[in-house]
Specification:
The structure holds two protein chains of two kinds. Chain A is mostly helical. Chain A has helices at about 10-50, 55-65, 70-95, 100-140, 145-150, 155-195, 195-200, 210-235, 240-275. Chain B has a domain at about 1-80 and about 160-165 and about 190-245: Rossmann fold (3-Layer(aba) Sandwich), CATH 3.40.50.300. The chains are: A mainly alpha, B alpha/beta.
Chain lengths: ~280, ~250
């Protein structure tokens, strides 16, 4: 019987291994999550095209995403519009003393950036949590298993109505957000700086690019938020604690997705505009 | 015929099922017994394709369940009914819609016919008046019966019952077992029944298997289980234990 040769491993190898593992594990986890989200997105698109449209469920979700978010969006964007105009107006007065371009530039900023992105952040907070919690609860109470045993596809039955509803309502809510923020901004400009609304409402800076990029962003956020929320919900494990984890994961991932998409679409937009 | 061939499954590195093999001949009912946490429900979910095993395969009528695509699996599930341990009723639908759901998914019957079938199903489970109620308005026994009605409404040739009488009083339990037996006799269904109600499954099952710690420790017919001398099987079958509760 021969004895196994005992080779002493240097301690640094083990430490290096641990360090690599601690860096590599979260990277692999993120890569897996991103891959799963893209798989769910493609499956959702497939069912949007090929699946049975459940209009009552879609309208119910549209009501939940849209109507129930109107006050939330109105208050947030309204106050944001007032604060931005007040701050920008004060700075403009200190630098140039001219407020003529305030309304025009504010509208451009709203269309391109603030209205779609802030509205999406609000929707990610309010709607993504609800979707993840609702679907997550269905997972832990075996309702998703029951759906599958009844020959229904969870993505077709649960994700598609939310996806369609959120995409449509995100575009509508963005247009609403622009209007609310602009009207509140005009009101603040009049009250704080005595700027005539006719001067404030200035479309001179707006090109076709501004509303289009805003709508493209709204469309992209509207697709990303429900996919990320439903992915978190459908991957719940471990009972009510798992539902809580999924809810947090949904809002964090959806907010991150909004910021990343904002960066990508803005960048692509400027590249395309530069080429034209 | 359902064939479970050498199934193993681990969860978070811990083996939950190890090399499980069982055959369930067509038209028979297999009673699956075992202590809580032994892996019975997981095995049932693997058999019907809800959970993928780490190794081994499950065939239903010669079809490898885990090699099917989503559409083919959905087609196979039109032939399977499942009663879940925790009811799994859709909480956003009323009772009638819950029961009608599998029929609507199938899409072969009109709404009038579906309504008739639901009405009959509710009558069969002695709950004719609760069609408009939502699951959160029902007692545990009512939910179980509604879940049963949903599982069998399509009259599938294969049925899986996960603890059909858990938490029910003896009268309702007896009614449920009578319904299961009737289903078996009238339609010749192939079934797997998980239950801790040994008296009940003695009445309805042709074969029995016992799982302990993820392994099949007994598989045989009624005569074999009566004569089995494995202590745990004897304890379960006869309903007593020589050990202390903490032992």
């Amino acid at each position: 019987m021969s004895a196994e040769p005992h080779i002493e491993q240097p301690q640094t190898t083990s430490a290096a291994h641990n360090l690599l593992a601690s860096v590599g594990e979260p990277i692999l986890m993120i890569a897996r999550t991103v891959r799963e989200i893209f798989e769910m997105f493609s499956l959702t698109l497939y069912y949007v095209v090929r699946g049975r449209k459940r209009w009552p469920a879609i309208f119910e979700q549209m009501y939940d995403v849209g109507n129930r978010s109107i006050l939330f969006i109105a208050v947030t964007l309204g106050f944001l519009g007032m604060i931005l105009i007040f701050q920008a107006g004060n700075q403009a007065l200190q630098i140039t003393g001219d407020l003529q371009v305030l309304g025009g530039l504010f509208l451009q900023l709203l269309l391109r950036e603030f209205a779609p992105t802030i509205a999406a952040m609000m929707i990610a907070t309010r709607v993504a949590t609800g979707m993840a919690a609702q679907i997550g609860s269905m997972v832990v109470t075996e309702q998703v298993d029951a759906l599958q045993m009844c020959a229904a596809q969870p993505v077709d039955y649960l994700v598609v109505p939310r996806f369609i509803a959120c995409t449509i309502m995100m575009v509508i809510l963005t247009i609403f957000a622009v209007l609310v923020a602009y009207v509140c901004g005009a009101f603040t400009a009049y009250m704080a700086f005595n700027l005539n609304p006719r001067t404030f409402i200035d479309l001179g800076f707006i090109t076709w690019f501004d509303p289009i990029i805003g709508l493209v962003k709204a469309f992209a956020y509207g697709m990303a938020i429900p996919i990320i929320a439903c992915h978190a919900g459908l991957n719940v494990f471990g009972g009510s604690e798992g539902v809580g984890r999924a809810t947090t994961q949904a809002v964090v991932n959806a907010s991150l997705a909004v910021v990343i998409l904002d960066f990508i679409i803005s960048g692509l937009g400027y590249v395309v505009l530069g080429l034209l | 015929m359902i064939v479970v061939d050498n199934i193993s499954k681990s969860h978070l590195g811990r083996p939950v099922l190890e090399n499980v093999s069982i055959e369930i001949p067509e038209g028979t009912n297999l009673g699956l017994i075992g202590p809580g946490g032994a892996g019975k429900t997981l095995l049932l979910k693997i058999i019907c394709g809800l959970v993928k095993p780490d190794s081994g395969k499950v065939t239903i009528g010669g079809i490898d369940v885990h090699k099917l695509g989503a559409t083919q699996l959905a087609d196979l599930r039109f032939r399977i009914g499942m009663l879940f341990q925790n009811y799994a009723l859709f909480d956003f639908m009323n009772v009638a819609d819950n029961i009608a759901f599998p029929l609507r998914q199938e899409g072969t019957l009109g709404e009038l016919e579906i309504a008739e079938r639901v009405k009959k199903a509710l009558h069969d489970i002695s709950l004719s008046t609760i069609g408009n109620r939502f699951p959160n308005e029902l007692s545990g026994g009512m939910k179980k019966r509604v879940s049963f009605a949903r599982a069998v409404i399509r009259q599938p040739p294969i049925l899986f019952y996960d603890d059909p009488t858990a938490g029910l009083d003896p009268v309702i339990s007896s009614k449920i077992f009578i319904l299961l037996r009737t289903m078996q006799q009238e339609r010749g269904t192939t079934a797997v029944t998980i239950s801790h109600d040994i008296g009940g499954i003695k009445e309805i099952c042709d074969f029995f298997a016992m799982i302990d710690r993820g392994q099949i420790i007994f598989h045989g017919n009624r005569d074999a289980i009566e004569r089995c001398e494995i202590p745990l099987v004897m304890q379960f079958w006869r309903g007593f234990s020589d050990d202390d509760l903490d032992g």
